[in-house]
Amino acid sequence: MARAKVNENVNSARRSKHGGLLTLVFSVLSLAWIMPIAVVLLNSFKRKAYIFRNPFGISAASLSDGFERWKQGVARVMCGTLNYTNGLRQTNFWSCFGYSLFITVGAVAAIILCCSMCAWYITRVRTKLTRSLYYLCLFSMIVPFQMVMFTLSKFANILHLSNPLGIIVVYLGFGAGLAVFMFSGFVRSLSIEIEEASTIDGCSPVQTFFLVVFPILKPTTVTIAILEAMWVWNDYLLPSLVLNVNKYRTIPIAVQYLKQSHGQLDWGAMMAVLVLAIVPIVIFYVACQKYIIEGVVAGAVKG
Predict the structure, then answer these.
(1) What's the rounded Cα separation, in Å, for the pair 139 and 119?
(2) Cβ-proximal residues to 171 (8 Å cutoff; 6+ apart), any chain
(3) Is residue 65 part of a domain?
(4) Residue 151 is part of which domain span?
(5) 240 within some domain
(6) CA atoms within 13 A on the CB side of 87
(7) Overall domain count for the chain
(8) Which DSSP helix (H) or strand (E) runs through 50?
(9) What CATH number should be reported for the domain holding residue 176?
(10) What single string gives the DSSP state of each residue in 140-208?
């Protein structure tokens, strides 16, 4: 009995030691992801000369200069600094923000709704057609985008998809592969008896899906929503190929258009716009993170 207690104490000490070491290692590794964001945020308050002179440090002169400019005028007070004022003005930021928000919300909603129903159908109805459809979705994850980008651009023009509503359809096609794959894996782990019970109670297949199956898919739905939202919100290549950029510009395209003739670029304004572009997606991730954790815990004890 005493020996077992000693062994337990030794194992507990080892786990504590290893846990502390892993915490230290991952804390150091996290700096590799935090540092770029910190540099962008820091340089968004500097003038162009100070950005090139000391991009990774804090200059008292640059900060004092920035705060002196911050005091001048109501618009600068509202925007924070001259960089933010210039960034908002040069990019027509709020218009671009509206297009990005509309496209992201619409694309994510379409992907979740259509792909969850598709995954449920091909998982429960096992035929050659559904198996072919499932493998076709997997194949779409393998094909590089560069192989289809020019054909896609041509067909988007022919089908008049060069607008915010049309590009949602394009995003649905490209995002369906991963979403169907993840939804299918989760649906396979669900007990079919629940669906059979709802059918006995008089539910139609549509009612069974929306009232019984879809609420259970919440953990996977949130995970897919985060992955797809980060992809659509930060995507530059697809909107630049499909959208009419003279009329519709998302935030990544607007940042690219900050570059003026002869390669001139207002680095301070660009850093400020990048900060404003990062904030919404970070807030969305932080707000949804708890649901992912709840889904992992629920899946670990399910069944």
Answers:
(1) 15
(2) 103, 107, 110, 111, 228, 232, 238
(3) no
(4) 93-248
(5) yes
(6) 25
(7) 1
(8) helix 48-53
(9) 1.10.3720.10
(10) HHHS-GGGTHHHHHHHHHHTT--SHHHHHHHHHHHHHHHHHHHHHHHHHTS-HHHHHHHHHTT--HHHH
Kindly report the pTM of this predicted structure. Answer: 0.78
120 in any annotated domain = yes
Residues 6+ apart with CB under 8 A from 50: 59, 61, 62, 65
Answer yes or no: is 10 within a domain.
no
Tens of pLDDT along the chain (303 residues) come to 555 444 555 455 555 556 677 778 877 887 887 887 787 777 777 766 666 666 666 555 555 555 555 444 443 334 346 778 877 888 888 999 999 999 999 999 999 999 999 999 999 988 989 999 888 888 888 888 888 888 888 888 888 888 999 999 999 988 888 899 889 888 888 888 888 888 888 888 888 889 889 988 888 898 889 889 999 999 998 998 888 888 889 999 988 887 764 556 777 778 888 888 888 888 888 888 777 665 554 443 444
Q: Specify the amino acid at residue 31.
A: L
| Residue in the block written with tokens 């850093």 | 271
Place of tokens 């792909």: 115
